[in-house]
Amino acid sequence: MSDMQISGLSKVFGGLRATDDVSFHIAPGTVHSIIGPNGAGKTTLLNLMTGIYEPTAGEVTLGGQSLLGKPFHARVAMGLGRTFQTPQICHGMSAIENVMLGSHLGLDGRLLPSMLRLPGIVRGDEACREAAAGWMRYVGLERYLDAEPGAMPYGALKRLEIARALAGKPRLILLDEPAAGLGATEKAELSRLICRLRDEGVTAVLVEHDMKLVMSVSQHVVVLNYGKKLAEGTPDEVSRNPDVIAAYLGRTH
Amino acid sequence: MSDIDKAIGMPRGLSTAGGPRLRLAGQGGVLLLAAILLLLPWLLRSGFQYHMAVMIGIHAVIAIGLNLLVGYAGQISLGHAGFMAIGAYGTAILSSRFGWPPLLGVVVSAAAAGLLAFAVGRPILRLKGYYLAMATLGLGMIIYLLISNEVWLTGGPDGLSLPMLSLFGQDVDSPKVWYGIVAVLLLVAYWMAGNLVNSPLGRALRSLEGPEALSAAAGVDVSASKVRIFTVSAVVTAFMGGIGALYAGFISPKSADFMQSIELVLMVILGGMGSIPGAVAGAAIVTLLPQVLTAVEHYEPLIYGLILILVMVLMPKGLVPTLAHRLRRSRS
Amino acid sequence: MTEFLQYLMTGLTVGSIYGLVALGFVIVYNSSNVINFAQGDLQMLGGMLAVAFLAAGLPLPVAIVLGVAGGGIAGLALYKWAIRPARQAGPLALVVITLGVALVLRGGAELLWGRGYFSLPEFSGHETLNLFGVTIVPQSLWVIGITAVVVVGLSRFFQSSKTGKAIIATSLDPDAATLMGIDTGRMKLLCFGLGGVLAAVAGVVIAPIAFTYSTVGLMLGLKGFVAAVLGGLGNFRGALAGGLVLGITETMMSGYGRSDYKDAVAFLLILVILIFMPRGLFGAAGGERV
């Protein structure tokens, strides 16, 4: 068992149940997708997982440990990685430095040794630079090592974020609409990247609108509607589920 | 070990072209600064010119410390003159009223400023943008008003005199010796700041400039990190405030007022946000400008204001980053 | 009690002035997200211009109108030549630019009129009134009255005139406003002009009670800014209320407490408010402005 277990999770805003008694399990080494029409509560669920909101009821655990009450950065320290719908990139740093930022948690962060550039700091920094270059190559960004993020195309920034999240060596990585804003070629590349992650046993959760991507990369799909879990199963099962078909056809989105 | 790591294994032997070159550039900056500081005495003719060089050096160290906060971590402070004043007045009171060794006074005052920054940092740094500007301004003004009004302790508007600094049993009274002291401090500050911004901790601090979600997603504890860099910059500023007071031999509340805070921020912004050489250049300009303008005495604020507007309109990123960018472009 | 009422009266007078400057801050901030650090110096300019026109032989009402107009023109010029050319710059750069403008105004005033202290004659004589034992300077009534007129006039303007509505649309959503055919650049220009007028009005009405001099703008601007933040920065009524709260607290402090810490009140208040009520005393409900 493990990795992420979501049980009876609810979030009420005013009178609105944005997330309503949702439970599911994310097994290690699988790619899960969370889908649903607009306003189904996908973003709220994601924010509950990362600690931006605290749930009204329910529990979220990662690797058997409860995540509740912990701020986002502490959850990251416990092995939760995340990318954003619009890439969040630090423009004051080069591309590779952005990826290096992702792995700072495992490194010596004491002030005085950092200022004096003691040998331990130098070793950690060099290892982290090398690893970051590796991750950039992994996501196909090797030509952008020292580029300024401002000069990189949108699709590259999205992959830069994935590299940063991977550099933190997360137990589980949350990808928030990774395909949004990408062209057809970029989507195909993204699909290959996620398949590669899946084949290498990375646990990943996708929140995604692009059904073609979802169906081709995920092993398990959770469908939300009006904050509730409508269905879950393999892509095949879900796409044949009459409730799911009704939910998607019955609402414009 | 995470699942990802086990699954993929770490790629090895990849080109890290950016790394060594960037670091060399950092060390190159220190070497260049050392060369300038060594050669400068050949150009300095009068005691007054030495005086200006010492003042630039003191301001440059403060600007480097402030740039860590404002330029790199993106958190504005309009109250740093308050920390400077804590260093200056702390040193003056401890050394002249209590007879402490002046340097001990500097260190203790800097630590006190650090404690204050640490204590007020968490609630204040939760604020953003103009609100943070306002809160730090308020903090600085309160320190200024305390200094102006608590006459029994600070001498009020009359100010306080400080004893002469003595090193190894020798009184330090020559501008040349002061030049040497400040030059060493500047080099150390320049080197340490460069190390910091290129360390893992430094990258965590630099990420604070962006949206909070970005830092948090990288595992950075945003509020603790902000307090940390705020405290560092307060300690540096107070330390140099103490050194500056010892150098001047006298301090008055004027050194703690709002315009002083503004001048410190100007050094950072004019020279270049997030640029260590920029902080030094900014300190030099802001320190020298009033001297240059004395020739046109009556126009001083007018010209000062016009220069600010023009520089900001023409190069909003500050002098050094803008010029470096143009240089790179013309080369390629 | 009489003493308290006396302080209250003084506080209301001073507070009205802070409120006017704060309104200028808010109008400029809402339309273009700029904190105009020259706001206090525009106030100084208004007062100084009126003094100068009076000295040049013009009758007082004309001098007053010209002083106010001068503040408005300076506000327009500030936007046209300093803010607009740098519109792609970040907020910090804009802070520096407006500080630069503040210095230019101060320097210009020193150049033209020197570093002396000036005042205007009172608008309607200097015979004091007595109400329940409280001595009232007629100019105080002018200050409070004019502030009230300005506030009512402004809310009318924003609620019912076409231009006023266009300004509000610009501050709510500049892109949508542009799509609706509103010239947002023009609206921002107008707001800077309006900010200048408000500051100059404050400068002119207070000039018979408090001296005006080249460096007076700094503290006035800071206090106006404090008042604006107290009111939630972006909130119209809040700004005026913030000014009154600040003025009254300050006067009470110097009356009952230590007058040398009068100026500290503003800054202590702002720290407490920002730390415990980050959205200001009268919390802007329209979302976080950070």
In short:
The complex is a heterotrimer of chains A (253), B (332) and C (290). In chain A, 40% of the residues lie in helices and 24% in strands. Chain A is an alpha/beta fold.
Walk me through the structure.
The complex is a heterotrimer of chains A (253), B (332) and C (290). Chain A has 253 residues and is an alpha/beta fold. Chain A has helices at 42-50, 72-77, 95-101, 111-116, 119-138, 154-167, 184-199, 211-217, 235-240, 242-250, and strands at residues 4-13, 16-26, 31-35, 57-62, 65-66, 80-83, 172-176, 203-207, 220-225, 228-233. In chain A, the strands form two sheets. Chain A has a six-stranded mixed sheet, sandwiched between helices. Chain B has 15 helices and four strands. Residues 1-25 of chain B have low confidence and may be disordered. Helix content of chain B is 75%, strand content 2%. In chain B, 53% of the residues are buried. Chain B has helices at residues 3-8, 18-43, 47-72, 80-97, 102-125, 129-149, 151-154, 175-197, 200-206, 212-217, 222-248, 258-271, 276-293, 300-314, 319-331, and strands at residues 160-161, 166-167, 170-171, 250-251. Chain C is 72% helix and 2% strand. In chain C, strands 1-2 form a two-stranded antiparallel ribbon. In chain C, strand 1 and strand 2 (134-136) form a beta hairpin. Classes of the chains: A alpha/beta (253), B mainly alpha (332), C mainly alpha (290). Chains A and B meet through helix 2, strand 6, helix 3, helix 4 and helix 5 of A and helix 1, helix 2, helix 8, helix 9 and helix 10 of B.
